Amino acid sequence: MADLVTYENVDQLASTIEFSHDDETKGALEVLKWAYSHYGDQLVYACSFGIEGIVLIDLIAKVNEKAKVVFLDTDLHFAETYELIDKVKERYPALQIEMKKPSLTLEEQAKQFGDELWKTSPNKCCEIRKVLPLTEVLTGATAWLSGLRRDQSESRKNTEFINKDNKFKSVKVCPLIHWTWKDIWRYAHKNGLDYNKLHDNGYPSIGCAPCTAPAINMDDLRSGRWTGSTKTECGLHQ
Ligand code: SF4
How far apart are CA 230 and CA 234, in angstroms? Predict the structure, then answer.
């Protein structure tokens, strides 16, 4: 039996595992089959329910219909995002979708750190509402899944199928790295997938409402996130 790929040995083992990426899913299904057979049911998909997330959920459901999916519910998402999650729950009833909340309510956060922390200290806000909750979910987990794609941004262009994740001291598996924006939409339309209606209104990347605007530049799909600041990531992918 193959050695388990863990945070400690991923540098040595990842390069010995080969996935072909010239099939219809550019390797995604092969990677998912490997990931679920390798890590079993403890594997968690942290999904933001953007269009990549919708595609990845559809692929995951073909491999493991009871897969664990976690949504970091900051209490600051758009109503359209929550509506979409309800539709996904209907379409894939066996999936285990957890709405993971931060330990502080918005009121408690405002009391401790001031109103609208996302304006005064967005990194602190992301730490409380996203990073710490995901840390709790991943504590003890060897690996997790993410929908990162290489062409999403400069900071994601070197992502591999299997990555050492120093942030959460685990292995991050990214099946969609070779998918382009067009591939994602082609798959979503071909398979009649529900998606967040904000995508039709100029929002290619959708996060919390206070920190998400329509994209300024469609060559940079994340250009509508944290506009007016130098922040480009919430801190989950460093
Ligand atoms: Fe806070 Fe904005 Fe981060 Fe959401 S994206 S957790 S509102 S700073």
Answer: 12
